[in-house]
Structure formats: structure tokens, C-alpha cells
Amino acid sequence: MADKKMNFFEKMQALDRRYIYLVVALAIIIPLLVPFNSRTYVTEPTENIYKKIDSFTGRNDRAVLLCFDHDASTMAELFPMEVAILRHCFERDIQVFTICFIPAAKPLMDYALQTAKEGYEVQSGIDYVNFGYRPWAIRIPIMLKMGDDISEAVEYDDEGRKLTNLPIMKEIMNYNEMNLIVDFAGSAAVLSWITYARAKFGANVAAGVTAVMAADNYIYLQTGQLTGMLGGLKGAAEYEKLVDVFACHMEPDENGVMQPAPRDFSKEIIKNTWIKMSDIKNRMHKTARIGMNAQTVAHLMIIVFIILGNIGYFISKRKKDKVN
Amino acid sequence: MKRQIPLLIVIILGFIFVIHVFVPHKASADFYDWYQTWIKAISPFMVLLGIMSLFMVHSTKIKRKVPNWQYSVITLASLIGTGAVGFIWGTQAGTPFMWLFKNVQMPMGATMFSLLAFYIASAAYKAFRARSAEATVLLIAAIIVMLGQVPIGIKISKLIPETSNWILNVPNLAAKRGIAMGVGLGMTATSLKILLGIERTYMGGGK
Amino acid sequence: MKLTFARTGFFLFLLAFSFLLLPQMTHAAVNESEYIVENLSTADIPGDDGSGLVISWKPLPQERRIIEYRIYRGITPDSLFFIGKIDVNVKTGVMGDVMYYYDTDYNYFLDTQAKGKLRREKGQKKDGSLFRRYPRDVSIVGPQLEHYDILGVIPEKDYYYHNEKIEVVTETDTTVYAGLKLHEFSGMYKKLIADHVYYYSVVAVSESRYYCQHAESVIGIPRENAPEKTDRFYAAFVEDVPRLQFEWKLAVFADDHLDHNVYLLHKKDFDKFNKYLDEKIQKELNDIAVKEDSTLAVYTPKSQNPAKLIFARYCGYPYTPSQTAFVNIVEGKIVNDNRDIDVKIDVKNMEDYLFVFSFTDRTGYETFSDVVSANSTTTDQLPIVPPFMIIDRENDKGDYNRVMWGKPIVYLTNSTYLNEKKTHLQVNYDFKTNKNYKVRNIFFKVFDEEGKEIAYVNEYYQDFKIKIKLPENGNEMNTLFFEMTFKCNNDVGEDYILTQILQYDEQTQSLAPGDLYLEDENVDDWEYYIYKRNYSDEEFRLSKKVAGTQREVFDNIRYGNVHFKIVKHFDDEKNLFLVRPSFSVRMDDEKKATIASNLYPEEFEKTILQYEDEIANYVASKDTLESEEEIKNADDAIEYYSKQVELMKDHPIQKVAASFNNPKERIKFLDKSRHYAKNSFEYKIVKSNGKGIFTETNIYIREGVEPVSDENIYLTSYTGNGIDHFFPRSNWFNLDMLPAVIAALLFGSLVFLLIKKAKKGHDLFIRPIAGIQEIDNAIGRATEMGKPILFVPGTSGIGDVATLAGLAILGKVAKKAAEYDTKILVPVRDYLVLPVAQEIVKEAHYEAGRPDTYDKGSVFFITTTQFAFVAGVNGIMVREKTATNFYMGMFWAEALLMTETGSSTGAIQIAGTDAVTQIPFFITTCDYTLIGEELYAASAYMAREPLQLGTLKAVDYLKVIILFLIITGTILSTTHLTFLINAFPEK
Amino acid sequence: MSFEVISNFIAAFFTLSIFSFLYKDNPFYKFAEAVFIGVSMGYAIPLIYQDTFIPFVYRPIFVEYKFLILIPALTGSLYIFRFSKNLGWLSRYPIAFSMGIVGMGVPLSMHSYVLVQMRSAMLPVDNINTALIFIGTVTILLYFFFSKEHKGVYGKVTNIGIWFMMVGFGASFGYTVMARISLLIGRIQFLLGDWLGLMK
After folding, report:
1. Which of A15, A75, A299 to mutate against chain B (most B CBs within 10 Å)?
2. What is the pLDDT of residue D91?
3. Distance of CA C541 to the CA centre of its chain
4. A204-209 and A180-185 as β-strands: parallel, antiparallel, unpaired?
5. What are the b/e assignments for A220-240, b being 16+ CB within 10 Å?
6. Strand pairing partners for B23?
7. Which residue of A146, A269, C978, D167 has the lowest C-beta tally within 10 Å?
8. Burial of A64 (0-12, 13-18, 19+ CB in 10 A)
9. Could you list the residue range(s) of the whole structural domain that residue A154 is in?
10. Pairwise pLDDT comparison (B92 vs C431), residue with the higher score
11. C44: β partners
12. Three-class SS string for C511-558?
């Protein structure tokens, strides 16, 4: 009996790598194909972005600017955040602008808008404006000019309309109104928003970054230069959850028909709410959480591997010691 | 002539560049611009080295019919094919050249990169052994940070994400700073060695 | 079996590449007419000077898979040239039903990037009407010039020294031009001409780059319009001075604006004014309508403008004009002789008046703002501008002036509770200061709602956050009051206190910062406008507009100057574009006239003679004139020409220029004068609430400096800045780098000393480094197993020191391997590393005395692409079954891909890298790892030469100094002494 | 079969071929590797020609007549002699010219890697964390001191440095996991979603 056990651990010790690869593949493929429910814990940096954006609800004199600073290679992590934030804005009637400074980001930006728009009756020019692509070389001049007058800095939107003529711009002048900028990047691109928009004009700046970049940006959260941050798929999953729990909340009316009943952020509610994956019909609204499931399984699996490997190691070591 | 003059070029240019760093004057900036235009004119020829070497290696393999020589034919054919396609149809979006990039090179690059997920798992399994105190520390730190990144971590204990953050912001920061300072010194020293002509590996051997 | 592999390979290869032909074929079968864009039309852009058109069309549906739309323009419908394109994402298509292309302003026309010859566009038949971009060919581009406004941008040197004098003789007169080759222009930019006819067409390009048929060309005629109306205009009346102040917003398109004007309108005239406006608008519409259809009757407005001009200022220079103005009321009148303004105003009944602002453009159109009445205020309600000063910015190449004002500012930006109980609060702050006040300490005093002091923080090292302990009284603090004071190198004064509150905000559910007060002034209410003016412009322009919290601005002054010249003529025999040879140098002291010169001195002389002739003619004609008006005109002309001649002959600059015999010297002098005039600026500051309540300072005058005499301003070197103009200097030393100089010198001398010591034969001890000692064993193992060694010298270039260290180790490893007669494989990713590595390995074989075993193919290049390189290396490891793998140098994400494959083949692996992010992976997967600096030390350790050892020792000694400084510095800064830490650079 | 389907099919084929290496080296991987290397290098040639040769060599000389550029252009072409036995030394000239810039490295790396880092290492110690960072930095620096063997009390001190580094390395390792798995998720989403259409 004891011998058999030893053998198992010894076998585990010398386990062919290919089994590990297989398990990794399954650990990722299965959660992607069969979404299951898991709990998403919301962290403070995510919460802060949500609260800030939510405080613009229904206000004509407030707007959010989303800056897309990445290409397709980091799409897996950043795209879900973009959709989640756009959805939040559309759901809560928050004015939102989008802009990008690298050509490769333009299709992603259009795609994010198209994806998030699905199911909402929002109109370009009234509920949101896509500023389109502007060359990288004039990025900083635009950032600075926006502190003075956005419609002078950008002039035309992506559809070629003059900004001053758009209804959405009526009460939006500069960073005083377009009070939050969220920059999505797999790099330190948000730094220029901090140095130009934040330091010079006091705009709030937040970042959506890949997981690898999150630690580097942590310091700006501490110094308050970043209002909030979404880090990798996890941040996106957290934001998705916040949108579902608060902005998209539904309550039955007297006839028992579910009606939209958005509510304000509260730590209590989030603690006690459980959302079933299967209740969310649109796959794009839960991509990050499904991806996060795969992440969780993969992380756990790696940890289990480490532990198994070590148990095997200790048992075989003891055996060796005995022999000696 | 063969060795001394190039060395002299490096040393003279090197010292001018040391001075350039301290002198913001227009003259200094102009010197830098001049150097840049020259370097840019030199640089495209470097690719010849790569192509020549690639052809030499693979044609030798084909000639000698070493095992797997057939694949060398494929390599050379794809090299010539891609280059030709780029010269014939141009390199704009929508050309066959970009099609090759999008559907052959990019997916393979991304897949190669994503193999890291498998390797990171097998490395963790095979190499994370608590052989010594140091190895144990490494292992535990890795596990905590891994747990701290997924929701399950907070479920196990509230302390896990906090500890994970602490590890990243305290010991990790100290480690990075200490190593970076050492590396910085080493880099300065190596640059200085090149500047003084002590280090001349880059010249290659020979007289 | 092997052959089948190969066959499969070839088959698959052919398969993959055959798809390349697919895009070419897929298009053959489609209906071409479905690929022509519809609804192509052009429209004039409103509010401009008649140089803008917008071209619009309906995008093709997404399933047509269009990748770009190309736009063509021409002056006849049978030859249209490519002017621009709009890229489209094939997958998502175009959002919206219409696409637009703007052909506005000055945009790209021609430069050296253009192709040499004119070619028809792809897919065009032999007689097709679409061409590619304009070529560099003067004979083709030349005739186009007259149909556009072409602006040539010419670098100074090319304009001055590379021109050729060309005389163009026409029936009436001879004109002299400066002829320039295309490559002497840094670019040519075009603008459409108003009322000119242009033709446009659009071509859709499909995903497979098939050029679809073009749409039938459409006509576009840009029309001159009245300026756009400003949507913000404010007037304020300062009762006690008395003075009227105005502020307005500029229009987006302002290229053709000429003047900014303010009018005074009596309330009783309001209806009349509206009628006047109506007629004006009707006139504008009629103007365009008449142009479109000449049979229409021309409309002539009847009424006069009842409003009286009280302010007018020229704004037609190519910079952002100032946006504030004030007029003083003296004895009930507003007077300005230059503009013939003399208007009575009743100060006691200001409520009877209205004010209106207008832009006038070069064609004479005028657009009025909405009518406003003035807000009354008094001087004590106007903001106080703190004292300001301008100095040259230090440590730069001479392209910035530093403008600074006031004392430092600190403000709270954010707050977070650090614990559940909400007793620990982290508050973030930010501060702004300028060179005059170096902040040493910031003191925060925090009070609760009852005014009790609950915290005091002395921020002696500013890390943008403070921690506050709140009393544990159960209920949340709703409001905290902050009082902030400074200690600086210069005294800020006891009473310099900033206050701000942190208040609970329902929506974000946290303590949010409120407004910042400096004494009674709400800092956020105000903005600073920095105005500047040089010797070449008559009016001040806006340099920067910054928030009220700012205390300093770096004003950028571009170092190089270019000449902007209109290009209308060409010489196709000599391949030249012709521009005017006259250029302006600066304005005279009264800012009334321009001092101009000419590239060719003889032409300059000719102009003087010409003017003198004119004067003589007018004087002679005066006797025959009768009407007073004619005589006045003649007098004006005489005065004008006399003034010009005087400036051309007697102005100090012209006098000096005339004294040169060498034309090159003359141009050099003129260039210098022009450069100096363009780059010397005087400054003033306006502090405003953006709505007409503002204070404007006087021009800053430097104290303690003698004014430079008039002569010298023109003639002496650039150092003669005068007392009000500031010319940024090119600095010779960057003081920020001083610590680096000291450290580098110290290091250099240490190296020198220790190398000397090592050469004398002193034994310099180096501790054993684990990985290095194992290298021999690892090579030995490969020898025993009879398998090759793999050595990857990093994946970065030759300029990277890690690569050099790696290559140095390669030398030693290759030598050992040659001695043991073991094969070594060195795959390389960088072109330049390849020859070096080859030489090193070759030499190692010679040194080991085994030149015969050197195989040329052992060091080889794979590819520069990161992951393709890894794919190759992994293949080698698996197929060649390498027994020992070395990775020495710089690595990125590919590191683990290689080492894991290596460890799965069971090879011994030794790594060394300075890439902090990759060390963890090397440590876990390799048998030995040289961490960071150990990599550099390894080559010295293995070489054991005095030169290398001496340097390594020097680094060690320097490390002792660094350690000592770090420990002392930390102790000092912990005890609030920050001088040592502040001696080190921040970034 | 639409063009896009075929393109996706080819991308998927190469993706799977690369993945097959996880099982073992096989003809598919060998084939993909050969194509990858060839295509990636072939990709570089037209781009270098277009983006560096044309604007920095051809245009200055033949269009703008800046004949001085001939000097670096000719120097650059000396690279060709690299593989020649007798004239190999000529290729040292372009290399030497490119190496000159290393001079900038002396003061710049001293400035940004050493002095700036020293400043951040001198921050006031006001709590346990800053104290730990201080201790960590100092002990790691001592570990990289090569003139003294790690023995006795000194050995103990440098050992603390090793501990700090190990914790740091562990953290880096753990931290990278998430990003790498995200990449794999991206690839699998391509295979399952774009190619097979299993994810809806």
C-alpha cells in the first residue's frame, strides 16, 4: 500500500510535461466553452473609476473621454474593459467621447463602439462622439488644447461633423467638463495624460492597462495622479460585474415585469449580490468574467502542480535519506 | 589601418558623445543630427549580412543534403517569395504581402508567444521545489502573488491580495532597485571600457 | 518516410503560397458597377476664406469589403490627380451613411517624396483620366501652380544661398525671381482658390487591392464666406477708472481674419442694428448666389451700422491673437487716433449701452457677435497679478524662455480611507512652484467642523501623499478643513496661507477636495494668459493659457526659421520654381512699417530708385491736380514712398547691409538680424476669469540692466537683449548633468588607478561566482556525451552592453570547446552580432590551436523576428540534442520559451542576463544563473587580465562610495535633512 | 468558401502546427518553423528597402543631391565584405561608426541608472516598509560586491540580499502568469471563435 503511494508521487515527480500541457489546455478551453459562475471581488481602483463615471449620470455638463492606445495584440485584456465602460455610459446616459492616436487602434475603437451599442438606442453626436484617429505627432498639442477648448482641439468628429454643431458638445468646453480620461494601453501611454491633462488642467485620469503594466502604474494610484485603474482581464471582469450589479440592475414592477432600475454604488449591495452567468444573454457582456474563470482555473491548476510536485519531492527525498 | 583606425573612430566619436551629453548647445544638437543622418544611411546595408548568412547556411544544408535539408528549401523559398511579393505588389494593407503578414507571420508569432502559458506551468511544476530556504521563499512569493491576482485568493483569505500587493511593492521593489543599480554600474563600466579601447570584442578578432 | 515529410512540406507550402493568387482572382467575377461609390458630391465649407471644400459620398456596403477610398482632384475633368485616401477596416466597414474628405487649408502639394514621373493610376486604361500624385516633374506641376495658392516652405540656408536669379520678361515689365530647385523646399502646400472650379472623383479599393471604377467626377467650387460668428463675448465696465474691458473667443477658422473690433451700441438703436445685420446677411447670401448665377440682381444694403467702433486691432498674423482688450474712457470719450476713433460715452448711464464684437476678414466681410451689456465692476474686484519675471531657461539649446510668477501653490487632489474604521485617511496633494521658490517643507494643518485642530503634518519630503489619523468618534467626518503653508529657500511670508476643504461627496462616496483658496481668492476661478511679441510683429499674440494653479511656463521659441513664400511661377527649362527674392527683416521701432530687403543687392537698389521716381512723379503731378481729394492722395503717396525710401536707406540695418561688398556677408548679416528680431520676445500676463474680468500687466522690464542703445539693438550680437525683449540663449553646459559629470570623473579616475595597480602585479581578489565555475564542467559534460553546445549571445544588438558581455564569455567558452573538440552552435538574432560572433569563435579555435576544427556554419543568423528566432532555436535544441545550453546577454519574453525546451531535452543550462524581468525564469529553469551585474563581472573574472580586473575593482570601490552615500542620505532624510537627497537628480 | 474563411483556415493551420511542438518535434512544426523564419526575414527586406533605404540613402543622394550621404552609404556597403577572407577588416568601419554612440552611455547610464536610483534609495524611512526597502537595497548591493567572499557575518548579510531577490523573483514570476495565460486565451479564442465558430 505504502509502496504504491510512493510510486504515485515518484511518478508525479517524473511526470511527462505533455500531461501538464494537456491540463493547461483543458483548464483554459473548458471554462471558455462552458461558462460557470464565480464570484468577482471588486477592488478599490476599479471601484473608483466606476464611481467617478457613475457620478456623471444624466449630466449634460460632464463627459468621459476614452483614449485607445493599443493594437490588436493586447486586445484580449483591454477590449472587454472598453466594452464594459462604454456599456456603463450608454446604460446610465453618460456622455462619452472616444479618440485614438495610433492607426492600429482605430478599428478596435470602432469595433468596441459597435459592440457596446448593441441593444442601446444611442446616437452618435447626441449620446457619444467618436473623435476618430489623430496622428501621434499631434497627440500632446491636442491634449494641451483640450484644456482650453475641445472643439478647437479636435475640430471634426470621425463622421466629419464639426464638433461645435453637435448637441453633445453644448455644455462641454474643456477638462472642467470632460472631467475624466480613461486611457487604454499596454504601455505607459497614460503618463502623458497625467503630465499634460492632469498636472496642467486638473483633469481626472484613469488607466486601463494590461496585467503586466499594472504594477508599474500602481505608484500613480498611490500619489493620486491616477483616479483609478483597471488591471488586465481581472479589472475588466470587475467592471463588468459593477455594470451588471448597479447600472443594469432590473427590478420587477407591480405587474412583476422586470424593469430597468439602475442604482447607486454601494459596498453592501455588491457584497450580497450574485449574478448568474447564464442570465447574461450577450456574450460580449461577460467575456472578461469568462476569461477570468479560465484564468482562475489555470492559476489554481499551476498552484496544485507546484504543491503536488513538492509533496513528491519531499517523499522521494525522505526515501532517499532512508536508503542512505 | 585594419584595426587601429576603426578603434580610433570609436574613441574619438565616443568622447564627442560624452561631451554631447553635457552640452545642450545648438552646435552639440546639430552634431547629433548629423550623426543620425549618417547612421540612418549606413543602417539599411546591415540587412545584407543577415540575408547572406541565411543563404549560406541553408544552401550548405541543401548541398550537403544534411537531415531535414528539405526544410531549408522551404525557408529559402518563403524568404524569396515574401520578399518578391513585397516588391511586386507593394506593402500596403490588402496586398498579398500584408496578407502573408496577417495570416502567416502574425498568428505564428502570437502562438509562439502564447506557448509561454504552457511553459510557465511546466516550469512551475518542474522547478518550483523547496530545495533550500531561498527556493522556498521564491515559491511562496510566487504562489501568493498568483493567488492575489484571481478572485479565489480573496475568498481564501482577505490577507492574500494585500500580501501580494505588499510583496510587489516592498521586497520586489527593493530587489529591482538593488539589481538595477548594479546593472547600471556594470553598464557604465562596459561603456567606459569601450570608450577607452579596453573592450574591443565588437571589432571581432583578427589583425 | 523522410521523403514523405518533404513532400507534405512542399505540398503545404505550395498550398499556402497559392492563396496569394486568390485575392487577384476573386475579383474577376464581380459586377463592376456595384463597386462605384454613389452620391458623390462636394460642398463649400462655411465660415472660411474660400479655400475649403468637403467631398462626401456614400460608402459601399460592408460586404463589398473595401479597404480604402482614394480621392482625386484636378482642374479639368480629364486629368485628376490622387490627393489622399481614407483607410477603412474591412471587417467592421464604415460607421454612418456618409463619408467625408476635407480638402481645406494648406495641405500637401509636393515635396521630394513625390515620384519622378507621372503615372496613370492602377486599373486605369491608357486614356484613363486618373493619375497618381503630382510627380517631381516641373513641366507637369508648373502649369498647375496658377490654379492653387501654393505656399513653399524653404529652410533659411537654401533660400539665402542656393537660389538662382531669374528674370521673367513679359510685355509690360521685367520681374526678378529667386529660382529654387524642388529639393530646396522642405515642402509645398496648396490651398484652393475661391470661386475656382475643381473636379473630384473617388475610387474604392477592395480588400485584395483591386481598384474599382471611379465615380463620375463632380465639380466643386469653394466660396468666400463671412467669418464665423464668435459664440462668446463678454464686456465689463470698471467704474472707478473708468475703463471698458472685453474678452472673446476666437473662431476655429481664422486664416483670413484681419481685425478684431468692438462697437458701442445705444440701446435705442438696437432695432436699427438688427435691421443692419439682416441686410448684411442677405448681402452675403446674394454675393454667393450671384456668383452661381450671374443673371440675378445684385443686392445693395441700404442701412448704415448704427453702432460706433470703439476698438479695433489687427489680427492677421499667423499666430493665435490675443483675446482680451480694454479701452480707457477719458473725459467721457474713447479716442484712438490710429483708427480714427472718437466716441462719446456717458459713464453715468452705462446701462443704456450695448456692446458688440466683430471679426472682419480680408475681403471685407464682417460678422458680429451677439449683443451684450457690460457688467459693472470696480478695480478692487479685479484680480491681482502677482509679480512676474522672465529669464532664459537654463540647460537648453536656446529654444525656451522661462516665464514665472507668484509664490508656490499646493492643493489636495484626492483622498482614500486606509482602513475599514475610517480612522486613517490618505490625502493626495500636488504642488506647483517656480524657480524663485524651491519648496523645502509643506505644512498641513487639519481642522474638524468645530474648528479643532486634529492633525498637523510637516511634509519635508514631498511624495504627493500625507496620512492623517482621524479621531475615533464613530461618526464619519463629513468635512475637513485644511490650512497649508510653505517653507521655501526664499521667504514666502507668514501670512501666505492656502485653504481647502475635503467634503463628503454623495456620488463618489468619498471625501472629495473642494475649491482652493489663497486668502480670499478662489484659485480655480482664474486663468493666466501669457502674451508675447517680437520685433517682427506689430501685435501681441497668445503664447500660453494656463490654469490659476500654475506658477511657471516654458515658452517655446523655435530655433530654426524658415521662409514662407508663395509659389506661382516656374521655369521648366532650368527645372526651377520661382519665388520672390524680397524678404522682411523686422518692423521698425514704432511697429508701423516693415524693414525689408532683397536677396540681390542690385534689385534692392533698383527698388529705391523706383520709389524715388514715384515721388518725383507725384511731386511733379501735384501742380496739375485740382480737386482737394486728388491732392490729398498725392500727398499720402509721397509720404508713403518717402517713408519707405527712408527706411530702405537710413535704417541702421540697411546702412550696415549696404556697407558689405561681399553678398554672402551681407545676407549673413541680414539673416542674423532677422533671426534676432524673430526670436526676441517681450511679455505680459493677463489674469482673467475668462469673462472679461481681468487684469493686464505692463510689459515686463528687467531690473538692474542698462537699456541697450538703439544702435546696438540691431547691430551687436544676440546678447544685447535690451531690457524688455528676451532672446533665448544656447547654453554651453547642462547643470542638471553635473552630478553625472562628477560621478563619471570619479569613476574614470578609479578605473585608471586600479588598472595601474593591476598592471603592477597586485593581486586583485575577486570572489568566486557560482555560475562561472560550472562552465567548465558543463562543457566537459557535452564532450563526454559527444553532443554539441548551444550558445545564445542574447537577442539584442551589438550596442547593448549585455551582448558584449555575452560575447566576451562566448570567447572563453568557444576556446574551451575547441580544446575539447566539441561542436559549438551559436544562433544569432542581430545582423551585427553575427560577424563579431563568427570572428570570436574563429579566433578561439586559433587560440586553442585547433584552426582545423573551426566550422564556418557554427555561427549563423536565424532571423530578426523575436518569436521566429525562438522557433528556430527550439528546433535546433530538439534536433541537435544539445547537451549544454548557454544563454548570455539580453533577453525578453522569449527567454522561458528557450530554457523550458532546453530543460525538457535534459540539457545542462547556464544563463546570465541583466534583464530583471527574465531573471526569475532563468533561475527556475536553468542550473546556474548569473544575476544582473554578475554577467559583466564574469567576462572580467574569466579573462583575468589587468585591464578587465582593474575596471571590475573600480566598480567595486565605487559601490562602497555609493553604499556610504545611500546610508548617510537615508539617515539624513529621515531626520528631516534633505540636502543630500536633493543633490541627486530626480529623473 | 469565402476569402476570409480560407485566410482563417491558413492562420489556424499554422497556429496548430506551432502548438504541435508541445507534443513533440514533428514535420508540421518543422514546416511551420521553416516558413516562419523565411517569411519573417522576407518580410523585413521590402520594409527596410522602403522605410530606410529609400528615404535615407536613395532620396538624399539622387533626389536632393546631398552627395555627402555617399560617404556613409559607401561605408555601409562595406558590410558585404564581412564574409570575405582578405577584406573582412573593411566591415569594421561601419561597425566602428555605429559604436561611437556608446560614449553617450557612460554619463547617461551613470545618471539614470545610478544617480537617479540612489535618490530613490535615500527616501526617508518612516515606516516598516520603507525600512525594509532600504535594507533590501543595501544588502543586494552588498551581494554584488565582488571583492569579498560571502562568509561569516558578511555572508549572513548578503544572504538577506539573496532572500530579497528571491522574493522579488517569485513575485515577478507569479505576476507574469496572468499575462501569459491571457495570451493563450487570445489564441484559443481565435481557434474556437473565429475559426471554428464554437463561441457564440
Report:
1. A299
2. 86
3. 19
4. parallel
5. bbebbbbbbbbbbbbbbbbbb
6. none
7. A269
8. buried
9. 44-285
10. C431
11. C53
12. EEEEEEEECCEEHHHCEEEEEEEECCCCCCEEEEEEECCCCEEEEECC
Q: Which of D48, D120, D170 sits opposite B47 (nearest CB)?
A: D48
**Residues 6 or more apart from A323 whose CB is under 8 A from it?**
none
Q: Let me know whether A220 and A306 are in one domain.
A: no
Q: Which residue has the cell 564532450?
A: C783
Q: What is the mean pLDDT of chain D?
A: 90
Burial class for A52, CB neighbours closer than 10 Å (0-12, 13-18, 19+): buried
| Residue linked to cell 483607410 | C87
Give the CA radius of gyration of chain D.
Answer: 27
Percentage of chain C exceeding pLDDT 70: 95
ipTM for this model: 0.93
- Stated pTM of the model: 0.91
Per DSSP bridges, beta strands C218-220 and C233-238 are unpaired
C-alpha cell at C699: 510689459
Contacts of A28 in chain B (CB under 8 A): 117
With CB atoms and an 8 Å threshold, state whether D182 touches A295: yes
* Alpha-carbon separation of residue A203 from A136, A193, A195, C169, C636 (angstroms): 21, 9, 10, 61, 56
Helix (H) or strand (E) holding C360: strand C353-361
Residue boundaries of the structural domains of chain D: 3-103, 108-195
Residue length of chain D: 200
Q: In total, how many domains does chain A have?
A: 2
B91 close to D (CB below 8 A) = yes
Asked if residue A144 and residue A9 are part of one domain, the reply reads: no
Q: Is residue A61 classed as helix, strand or coil in its secondary structure?
A: coil
Phi, psi (degrees; rounded to nearest 5) at A123: -120, 135
CB atoms within 10 A of CB D148: 15
Whether residues A86 and A124 share a domain: the answer is: yes
Q: A213 and A314: one domain?
A: no
Cα B134 to chain center, whole Å?
29
Cell numbers standing for residue A281:
444573454
Q: Does A43 touch chain C (CB under 8 A)?
A: no
Do D37 and C967 make contact, defined as CB atoms within 8 angstroms?
A: no
Distance between CA C736 and CA C752 in Å, rounded? 26
Give tens-digit pLDDT for A161-215: 888 888 999 889 899 899 999 999 988 889 899 988 888 888 999 999 998 888 8
The residue of chain D nearest to residue B138, with distances taken between CA atoms, is: D170
Question: Helix (H, G, I), strand (E, B), or coil: what is residue C693?
Answer: coil
Question: Is there a contact between D122 and D137 (Cβ–Cβ < 8 Å)?
Answer: no
Whether A306 and A192 share a structural domain: no
| CB-closest option in A51, A111, A223 to C465 | A223
| C-alpha dihedral (C89, C93, C97, C102), degrees to nearest 10 | 10
Tens-place pLDDT, residues C897-922: 999 999 999 999 999 999 988 999 99
Please choose, from the candidates C299, C515, C530, C305, the residue with its C-alpha nearest in 3D space to the C-alpha of residue C401: C530
Same domain, A304 and A157: no
Please name the amino acid found at residue C536: S
Compute CA distances C348 → C267, C336, C345, C376, C687, whole Å: 15, 22, 9, 11, 27
Q: What is the domain-level CATH number for residue A176?
A: 3.40.50
Which residue of chain A has the CA closest to C901? A17
- Which value, to the nearest 10 degrees, does the dihedral of the CA atoms of residues D21, D26, D27, D33 take? 30
Q: Determine the average pLDDT of the residues in B169-183.
A: 91
Same domain for A178 and A303?
A: no
The whole-angstrom distance between D197's CA and the closest CA on chain C is 16
Copy the grid coordinates of residue A315: 517523499
**Cis peptide bond prior to C242, omega within 30° of 0:** yes
Tell me: do A191 and A261 sit in the same domain. yes
Count the neighbouring beta carbons within 10 Å of the beta carbon of residue D192. 15
